[in-house]
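Quick note —
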Amino acid sequence: MANCTEIVKGLKDAFRTGKTVPYEWRRQQLEGVLKLLDENKEEIIKSLKKDLHKPPFEAFFEIDQCRNDLIDTMNNLKEWMKPHKVQKPLVNLMDKAFIQKQPYGVVLIIGTWNFPIMLTLMPMFGALAAGNCVLLKTSRISWSISKLLENMVPKYLDNECVKVVNGGTGETTDLLKERYDYIFYTGNTSIGKMVMKAASQYLTPITLELGGKNPVYVDRNCDLRAAANRIIWGKTINAGQTCIAPDYVMCTKDIQGDLIESMKITINDFYKGDPSSSDSYGRLGNERHFQRVKQILDSSKDNIAIGGITNEKENFVSPTVLKDVKFKDPSMQEEMFGPVLPIVPVNNEDEAIEYIVNGEKPLAMYIFSNDKKVKEKFRNCTSSGGLVINDTMLHAGVMTLPFGGVGNSGVGAYHGKLTFDTFCHKRACLERELVLEGLQSVRYPPYTQKKIRIIQMVTKKTLHKSSFMTITYFLVIVMIVAAIVSKMLILFIE
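Predicted structure written out below.
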């Protein structure tokens, strides 16, 4: 790896030339990312298969999700870049007040391995759309994709303004010693804390896309077969290695057995009785992750209701459901990030809510119920990055919704226009004319009671009691201001 200090200095020098500011440069970079995806699609799919045994369907989904967000950014970039006019008080009626959207400068983007295209390129092209230079750090775990990006990015993007660094924790540590204008990190909470600590040295703004134990509550008042399909689908995509995957299920004891039977049918239908030979089922990212999940399974043998089959040679763990799990059990102590689903029996939704609110705030929460009161309880009494009712994970595909965590599950959010906004500094701008200086004397010393009364009349706000009252107050203020202005103009002319 080239010297980090030299790489960052080169990016800063490139940014200071101003070349990234014009719309034309930004558009050119986005077109480059689009060509990268379109011209190397088959190679990307092969690399995802090699790294994660990712099924082509899931690979297509990852690429297309990224591509669709990119197209939306390209279609709207010119509009997003425009200064945003804001409402003004009466005293600034003749002024221009607007928000200027400025690029931060040099952005460090630390990608992750479980969705190495979507979770690396989406923040990258958002940063480029906002006019920043980018240092892209890819993951050693998804090595084939990382090498592919390292080779492809220089062919399609501005080499002075976009750099790629591959590696693991050591390289990340070295990169974090440098000073950036913004840092965007996707990964686990422990590394997220390292990133936040490094950023705090220079008070660098950050986005942290982390994870956590995403809860599912299944109410007796719902279709258990449909719930099983949607929960198992969310749990087994990418072999459970998804930051918003359902992590554990809470339900009452009386429906646990029926839910497990429905899940058995679902898993058999999805993978034709043998996930290990299915082209629709992935593998864990590496041996370390496999051993971590296997250790949890080994400590939960008495709880296995479905699955529990492993193959160390392939880093394979079958879709597994654990029954009668307690909150203190090993499977409930950390984010699973694998295809193992604990079911924790609870007395009712209130006990489930109490457990959730007493723990760390999750990245996502999933509720299955047809009961309006139950749904409202979870919506109003809990906090999470995202909330989906009667399905799992689909909120991440709605680009108009913010994607991000809260508290321990993350800082900040992105997707769609929010990605562009994430990488922009919103600069407050007020522009005035150097005319009618006589009207300004009311705010200059010496301060008098008369000046105070005038300023209060012009600036005082009132609560909106009704449309009629609002209009009345507005007209009264306009009349007062007009009278003051007329009098001051007469004095000014004299």
